[in-house]
Design a protein that fits this description.
Number of helices: 9
Shape: elongated
Oligomer: single chain
Strand content: 15-25%
Length: 245
């Protein structure tokens, strides 16, 4: 998986060289190319923005440097994404879809956004990380790349491990504990120390159900309506949690 990221502020992407994504890059599993749009400006002051026609607040990123930056990464042959609050929500379905791409071009807007001709010509797909406004597309781009990268084969221990976590299973993740067994009078649940893998699995499932019902009732209701492959033991746990409603 290779990411070409077009941005006015490439230095903001330093965190991508750390932790999981940094190791994945070092191992050749993913690659990053952070392109400074200003480098392609034909303006002597390297300006990449101007006032919008028709009036309005703020500045708009101009098409010329973005077009040239797009051409420099061969965007015509790649899937182009534009981080935008009016775009398709970056959810589980879209992340899974993007993880199957070999190359992605991500355009990061700034100020009041980009000239519409950029989006139209390059057939950019607008993608949003939520119903709120940020100062630019850099942070959303990092969220997208991190979420997609962890599904690339080899980045995590297994693809199954990635899909089991949190909302990928349809439920929020169950509580987890590590050493010491007792800390300031708070003990680790005994079932986790029992060595009984079946009981531990059912406990995790029950806790995930309870937590999802409490924090994300929308996800819980979807899971209840669509669960089809539960074992008899899991079905009993489900019924127990439903009785708590």
């Amino acid at each position: 998986m290779h990411f070409d990221v077009l941005t006015l502020f490439p230095e903001m992407f330093a965190p991508m060289s750390l932790s999981m994504t940094g190791r994945a890059e070092q191992n050749g599993l993913i690659g990053f190319n952070f392109v400074n749009i200003r480098d392609f400006s034909d303006n002597k002051h390297k300006r990449a923005d101007d006032y919008p026609f028709g009036g309005g607040r703020g500045m708009l990123m101009t098409p010329q440097p973005i077009f040239d930056a797009m051409e420099s990464v061969g965007a015509a042959e790649k899937r182009v994404l534009y981080m935008s609050p009016r775009g398709r929500l970056l959810d589980q379905e879209l992340i899974l879809e993007l993880s199957h791409e070999e190359e992605l071009v991500i355009l990061c807007g700034h100020y009041e956004g980009v000239d519409q001709r950029v989006l139209d010509y390059w057939k950019a797909e607008e993608v949003s990380v939520g119903d709120y406004i940020l100062t630019g597309g850099e942070l959303p781009a990092m969220i997208l790349m991190d979420a997609v990268a962890r599904l690339v084969p080899g980045v995590l221990a297994s693809r199954d491990a990635a899909l089991e976590e949190s909302v990928y299973s349809g439920l929020l993740e169950y509580p987890q504990y590590t050493q010491p067994r007792s800390f300031r009078g708070i003990d680790v649940p005994e079932v986790l120390l029992s060595g009984n893998h079946k009981k531990i699995r059912l406990w995790k499932f029950e806790e995930a159900l309870k937590l999802t019902k409490k924090l994300r009732p929308d996800l819980f209701n979807d899971f209840v309506q669509n669960h089809q492959c539960l074992s008899k033991e899991e079905q009993k746990v489900m019924e127990k949690v439903l009785e708590l409603l």
